[in-house]
Amino acid sequence: MTAVTTTSGISGKARTKQHWNGLILPAVLILVWEAASQFGIVDARLLPSLGTIAGRAWNELAEGRLAVDIAASLVRYLTGFAIGSALGIPAGLALGLSRTLDRCVGPTFNAVKQIAVFAWIPLISVWFGVGEAAKIAFIALAAFTPVVVNTWAGARSVPRDLAEVAQVLTLSRWQRLTWLAIPSALPSIFVGLHLGLIYSWLATVGAEYFMTIGPGIGGLMTEGREHFHMDLVILGVVLLGGIGLGLNRLATVLETHVLSWKQH
Fold this sequence. Notes:
Structural class: mainly alpha
Low-confidence stretches: 1-8
Shape: globular
Mean pLDDT: 79
Order of helices and strands: HHHHHHHHHHH
């Protein structure tokens, strides 16, 4: 027991040290940024000081616009991610469990997934217009591909001995799906969902930036660019990075919690 506790303590200290080491570079960059702005090394109109950006954030928050923009982006993002995942998981399971679909559809899907997601914007704009429906469709597409790919791989990785046992027990297709295929594929499905969360957030920014301007962080940055308010643009960048980091961390925690049964 003592050895285990000691090892755990060392591991915890190592993780803490690694965490603090990871903050060194951002802290240095922030200090250099602030010094360059304060001492006139760079034009403050191009690189506003941290105080200027904080003041802009406070004004936007006090006027209620910042909360609306963040909420609009998150709703758009979660809606698109939910649609893409809801379509991607069944599609991946079907491709992974059906040899016929794998042979007939698999090569085409593997070719289509090589197309950069932003290349679909003109086509989506024609099909769905340039409003809210187009933005959500684009975000859903960004989530769909990684979810399908990883679910597909997970469904194909069912251990052969378990498949043979299922055949001996004459399990129905539904029983094989729910008792065998999905539990075996679950780690890969969560990897796909995790990637889908990341790609969806990137697609949210792209949709708001390249399609019609409206409420959202991308719209906030576009407004700042058009009026040359760099503090507004950098505020948008900070929000995107901070929210994206938080979403990634939340996804990691949920994935670890849900898959904890694999460790037992």
